[in-house]
Amino acid sequence: MKAIVVTDNGLSLQEVPIPTVGPTDVLVRVGAASLNRADLTVAAGHRHGKVGGPGTIPGMEWAGVVEAVGAEVKHFAPGDRVMGSGGGGYAEYAVSDYGRVYPLPNKDMPFSEAAVLPIALQTMHDAVVTNGGLRAGESVLIQGASSGVGLMGMQIAKAMGASLVIGTATNAGRRGQLTGFGADIALDSSDPGWVQAVLDATDGKGVNVIVDQVSGPVMNDNMRATAILGRIVNVGRLGGTDAAFDYDLHALRRIHYIGVTFRTRSVEEVREIGRRMRADLWPFVETGKLNLPIAKEFPLAEAATALAYMKENRHFGKILLKP
Fold this sequence. Notes:
Shape: globular
Number of strands: 17
Largest sheet: 7 strands, mixed
Distance between the termini: 10 Å
Number of helices: 10
Structural class: alpha/beta
Order of helices and strands: EEEHEEEEEEHHEHEHEHEHEHEHEHE
């Protein structure tokens, strides 16, 4: 099969063997693969969790048709149209554990629309609902809301009954589009007045849940914007991994500060994340209420160009590769 492979000299389109199917695996003929920020790390030759280094095929999510299944797989069969996450998506075939593979919500959904959903659905259900503990009627703020995962987080919050959803984006053009994806209020987190705007919108209390994809310099402001006994879920650190932390403010607000990542989770934990996500969200996926915009599509051979486009950070929505 053709695949994009990490080499010492960058990415290369190569002929490689089709992945081996283990007992709990699903092999998929890829119809579309979606780009994610972690792909930049892997494509640069670095490790992301257990993945990385020369010989690696980047790509964390995709959609396509089941080619084969392992002996222990009960709910999928060759010919099924599916979407999933895992590794090796920048290729004509990808393999993943059955717990990270989902049937397309309807048989007519294009692979390009499906390929952008798995990671956003898994990540943000886990952040907003499981770890954020969102209850109907509570308020939510998504830091870095203009990313694909951020856009999904706002939609999930609304679907699960949030009374107020606030999204942040430093780019004015992208910020102006947040209300189309669940935001009641869109703020600029680089504006010194954003915390006061959150307090004004919540009668001075602060929001119940913050899902933080920025961290670094916004950490203490996040706590100022969080209600007493509120929850902050640390999902991403695009703004920096180190910053001063106001421990006294943390204690005064009695904030639950929770870190999450898929990199240290077991196969069983990831399966449970998928199970919980489907139990809560699948009706919304089936009706199209949870969706993501597509910024641009590239052929598989132009993976390096697609990644460069993502690194420029001027797009709104997801970027795709088509084998």
